[in-house]
Give the backbone structure.
Amino acid sequence: MTPAVPEKDALREFADNLKAAPRRVLETAFRSGPPTTDRTRSTFVFGNVFLHLHAVRTHRWSLKWSTTMGLGIMSVSAFLITLVTGVLLMFYYKPYPEAAYQSIKDIHFVVPTGRLIRNIHRWAANLMVVAVILHMARAFYTAAYRRPREYNWLIGMGLLVVTLGLSFTGYLLPWDQLAYWAITIGANIAQSPREVTDALGITNYFDPGGLQRLILLGSDQVGAEALIRFYLLHVMLLPLALAALMGVHFWRIRKDGGMVRPADADEQLARQRHEETYPVFTEAPAKTYHLAAIVRGRTANVGRGPENTVPSMPHLFYAELGVMMVTLLACVAMSLVSDAPLKELANPSVPENPAKAPWYFLGLQEMVAFSAFMGGIGIPSVVLIGLGLIPYLDRETEGTGKWFGGPGGWPLVRLSAVFGLCVPILLESFAIRFGWLREWFPNIPQPIVTAINPGTLLTLVYAMYSLWCIKRYGSVRAGALGLFTCFLGGFLVLTIIGTYFRGPNWVFYWSPADWPKH
Amino acid sequence: MTTKPKAAVSRLDPEPMPRRDWLGLGSLWAMGGALMFGLLGMLKLPKAAVLASPSKKFRVALPETLPAGEAFVPPGRAVAIFRDGEGIFAVSTICTHLGCVVKPNAEGFECPCHGSRFHPNGEVRKGPAPRPLPWLKVSVSGGTVMVDEGTTVPQGTKVA
Ligand code: HEM
Ligand code: FES
């Protein structure tokens, strides 16, 4: 029997398929084809697992530079940069005392491109802290935390804490003098609730401070156990936590209807617009709206047409990629001109003098120099709780989505900025010039110093000022504007004093040139 | 829970919680409880039971001539040992503020980190340190001194 002669030439078909294979792989990966029409641009977004964190269309208001200043994306970009460079550093880093220091030295001096990668990692980490703080400020000043975004503000606070945690744990890893003494101080701040339990005489029964320190260090001193714990936190637990929180953060942004915008955003845009927008629903929708049956009540987009939106691909994505490139450029540029520091090998018997924490903690260190508990735990907790409560206390609607929106507005913010900068400068000048309670009354009991010191006074003055704002403007938002601005001012002043004006023995010096030589 | 009688309910919004569902609810709570219990158990792991720190006791020979009031700091140890007419005593040089190592000087001790100052007997003179520097247990045998950094003794305890 001879096989039937095939009608088609199978070999030829095989060859054709082979030729077409690369194109088909691409087609099946991006099923909607090139994003050239509005419909394919939409399918491009929701057909892609990574892109569909974004809505298919973006409101024009969200794309305005002044809405977000790209700060959130800048935080993400900095995080991605630290992620990539961090993985590269892990090829050589050894998390064991001495060896850790040597491996960082190798990375810095021997490993090809090691120094550049290490510098980029450092700079991206610093930039991330700056970007996250500024991003929080922008979310605050545009009143973006209001309904329905309250919870996302809380998620954001989680992101802030984890970001600071990542930076701090990374600071220990080089195991040099700077790292060792910063961590010693940090671990003892974790133990400082003892300042209170000691005063109450209950430390023997109830010692949360000691427990925190023990869990953090895995030992009663800063050593190999502490290093491996910080390493675990730095390369594993905290990045995972950050990634998870970011996922929720972004998902929520979508569900909350995208970026916040003023109620009259559409009118404002209409007044400024040069080009025409065109209606979206020119054809019958390709999908039926099953979800519409389940969604109940007012979700962010119910009752509004998709007018004044543009396809996220390319408008939003190109803007995001632009911010990413700028972030990367900034990190690389800084890395080329300025090296990450590496001091001598850690020496547990001679502290670095002055021993300074990373710059964003120097404001805290400034307060810690009066009371460990208040400066390191008490006041930061009050600040975090206060920030977290803002969306639940300010239930107003005036000014949502506007910069410095709300009663008082920009003039109030300006006044608060002056106030918020002056009070800590005055308090610090006084304390630096005349000393504090213990210098005047050497036998004063510790609880009094814990309760009354420049840090607590500052917090109190700010709180009173905020209450005054609420009363003066008859609005909780005004109080929040006042308090948040003061908080930023205080953070700035204390950080600058701690960074530039504190020398050996934490004594005030006008410039490092005046530091005593030893 | 109750619903208003005759409240319009759709197929997607059934009565909030039919009473029969207590079994399901109960098992959910049981599962939640079990997970919490497991979580608490897991939290025990990072709290080390045995601390891998080197021995807190060490033995040193004091220099022959150690004037009263002058501190002898054994290399690599955070302890200052003194000898005067009444005997030998040791003061910890770990700052009670945030754990930096203080330096003995003519007036007592000074801390480089946040400027705490201490009297020679360990009492706080100035700065943020909340407690005096503790005195450590010493014992003398033969020509050498044994210091136990893990045991504190009341201020003023001197060993002949
Ligand atoms: C790792 C840290 C963070 C990352 C990566 C991040 C990322 C983002 C991104 C990409 C956006 C979109 C809009 C924009 O670019 O501004 C956003 C919005 C938002 N973020 Fe964050 N964020 C972080 C931390 C925070 C913090 C600390 C807060 C406040 C406590 C916060 C509160 C918010 C709020 C309320 C919105 C919605 C703003 C609006 O609707 O206009 N985020 N975040
Ligand atoms: S650690 Fe000594 S003053 Fe802070």
